[in-house]
Write a structure and sequence with these properties.
- The chain is mainly α.
- It has one domain.
- Helices cover about 75% and strands about 0% of the residues.
- The protein is built from 7 helices and no strands.
């Protein structure tokens, strides 16, 4: 495995944001419509994980080595952002033993689709913004996400 991938994955910022995702998942297990692996939970995770993936990308964008191509950086950040989606999925799969799920396969596919693609969108958007705007890319990212 790539050394920079492991450095980013075990960095303090990445661990804090992945802990935030796990915390939101644990809160969702106590809310009636969000405690099953379905559309509602996938939407919540899509919104939160997309923003978090973009924020992590912006954090590491100015730390990117000058010899690293932008496509390699985007692929690296996509890998990290998709990996941090696994612990919430595992928590909800364990919760499926307690709370009856209508269609586990449909919920699983929705989780792959909605948070997975929102992370892809937000990471590529954050990479584009950090490339175009070298000063204060976080403000531009926030403006684009809010609008």
């Amino acid at each position: 495995m790539n050394n920079s991938f492991l450095k980013i994955l075990t960095h303090r910022i990445t661990l804090i944001y992945s802990s935030l995702l796990v915390g939101i998942t644990l809160v969702c297990t106590q809310i009636p419509r969000l405690n099953v692996l379905g559309y509602e939970f996938a939407m919540v995770m899509g919104l939160v994980a997309g923003v978090i993936g973009g924020v992590i990308t912006l954090h590491f964008a100015h730390r990117r080595p000058p010899d690293m191509y932008i496509l390699k950086f985007v692929a690296l950040m996509l890998g990290v952002s998709e990996i941090i989606l696994i612990p919430p999925l595992v928590i909800m799969m364990m919760n499926a033993w307690i709370v009856p799920n209508c269609s586990f396969l449909d919920g699983f596919l929705l989780y792959l689709l909605i948070p997975g693609f929102s992370v892809v969108f937000c990471v590529t958007l954050a990479s584009l913004i950090s490339t175009l705007f070298t000063r204060r890319p976080g403000i531009w990212y926030t403006i684009v996400i809010i609008t």
